[in-house]
Design brief:
Layout (H helix, E strand, L loop, with lengths): L7 H8 L6 H25 L15 H5 L1 E2 L3 E3 L2 E3 L2 E2 L5 H6 L1 E7 L2 E5 L2 E4 L6 E4 L2 E5 L2 E7 L5 H7 L1 H16 L4
Antiparallel strand pairs: 1-4, 2-3, 5-10, 6-9, 7-8
């Protein structure tokens, strides 16, 4: 969870309230939505465009295209939103992974080449085509290269300024 700091004027307004007026809560939620969209673009540009190995580079752009923000929800004095991705390998890169991974059986396209046989050591020609690969396990060490959390942290001050403006403007009747 990342905390967003609001300015002292906005803090003073909130201190005098027991709960958000409905108009203020709607304004904060709309501001969160617009800031989240800016953050999604920022993450894709700053953290998913290399250079490797410090940051993730783009291979297929699937991860960059999949990042999205949920619509902010208001529940009492709590306004919640999130930024994430449904891509299954995203957490492996965000948090890193070290351990044993199971590779499911699959088909692989192969090019024609010479290989040395495992049993007799003789060279054989493998023809181009598709081959089946059996299930196996392998040791994996993927270093953490976070992209969502640092993207939000980088923009936390922008969120704070925008939300502070909404709070003060709503309080002063300029929403």
């Amino acid at each position: 969870m990342i905390q967003i700091r609001i300015n002292s004027n906005a803090q003073a307004v909130l201190a005098s309230l027991r709960s958000f007026p409905e108009e203020m809560a709607r304004g904060i939620a709309a501001t969160m939505d617009s800031q989240n969209q800016l953050t999604v673009g920022y993450i894709a540009a700053k953290y998913l465009s290399g250079p490797r190995p410090e940051k993730l580079g783009r291979v297929t752009s699937t991860l960059a295209r999949s990042i999205h923000a949920s619509k902010a929800t208001v529940s009492g004095n709590r306004i919640t939103s999130s930024i994430g991705t449904p891509v299954v390998y995203a957490p492996l890169h965000e948090y890193g992974f070290r351990g044993i991974a199971k590779v499911e059986p699959h088909r692989r396209r192969v090019k024609s080449r010479d290989v040395r046989g495992k049993v007799d050591g003789k060279r054989r020609k493998i023809a181009s085509g598709v081959t089946s690969v059996r299930s196996f396990e392998r040791r994996v060490n993927i270093p953490a290269r976070p992209f969502i959390e640092p993207g939000i942290r980088d923009r936390a001050a922008d969120y704070g300024e925008a939300i502070s403006r909404v709070i003060v403007n709503t309080w002063n009747g300029r929403a």
